[in-house]
């Protein structure tokens, strides 16, 4: 009888461990899937972040400005709306907009765009995944020098 109980406990423990591993794997796959959906270059960005500890990315969100009136008041209003969303995303991921938390072993290098709904920043792999999971973030691209197009 004791042997049967031990066998049953071992089987239940193995099933529990397998379920926990499956949950972890599905969570990791969901994060990877979100990153793949929001970052067409997800594999390249992740490889760079893993190799050097961070990657430089451009984070874009839906423009809160809508149609911008081409006058000083309209432009000022659009800038204020973009800045408000930038502030919210930056604060939730990097602590402070005025003095964002530095990366581990790298400068944050935060650059905010005035009218464009986005910003450039250096991020770790974990921060990249967290940004991808943020519903306010629409796209994440590698920030790289590009040759001008004609």
How would you describe what is shown here?
The chain is α+β, with helices and mostly antiparallel strands and 150 residues long. The chain has one domain. The protein contains 4 helices and 4 strands, in the order ααβαββαβ. The protein has a 4-stranded antiparallel sheet with strand order 2-3-1-4. Strand 2 (111-112) and strand 3 form a beta hairpin. Helix 1 crosses helix 4 (125-133). The radius of gyration is 22 Å and the shape is globular. The protein starts with a helix and ends in an 8-residue tail after the last strand.
Give the structural class. alpha+beta
Q: Proportion of β residues?
A: 5-15%
Give start-end ranges of low-pLDDT stretches.
10-31
**DSSP summary: helix tally:** 4
Total domain units: 1
What can be said about the biggest beta sheet?
Answer: 4 strands, antiparallel
Rg from alpha-carbon coordinates: 22 Å
Q: Helical percent range?
A: 40-55%
Principal-axis shape equals globular
N→C terminal distance: 81 Å
Q: What's the arrangement of strands in the largest beta sheet?
A: 2-3-1-4
Give the helices and strands as they follow along the chain.
HHEHEEHE
Mean pLDDT rating: 83
Number of strands: 4
């Amino acid at each position: 009888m004791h042997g049967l109980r031990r066998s049953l406990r071992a089987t239940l423990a193995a099933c529990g461990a397998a379920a926990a591993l499956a949950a972890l794997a599905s969570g990791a796959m969901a994060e990877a899937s979100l990153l793949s959906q929001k970052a067409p270059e997800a594999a390249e960005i992740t490889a760079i972040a893993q190799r050097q500890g961070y990657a430089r990315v451009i984070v874009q969100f839906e423009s809160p400005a809508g149609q911008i009136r081409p006058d000083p008041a309209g432009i000022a209003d659009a800038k204020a709306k973009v800045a408000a969303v930038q502030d919210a995303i930056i604060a939730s991921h990097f602590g402070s907009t005025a003095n964002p938390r530095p990366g581990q072993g790298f400068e944050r290098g935060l650059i905010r765009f005035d009218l464009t709904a986005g910003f450039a920043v250096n991020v770790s792999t974990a921060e990249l995944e967290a940004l991808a999971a943020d519903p306010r973030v629409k796209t994440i691209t590698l920030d790289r020098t590009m040759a001008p197009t004609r």
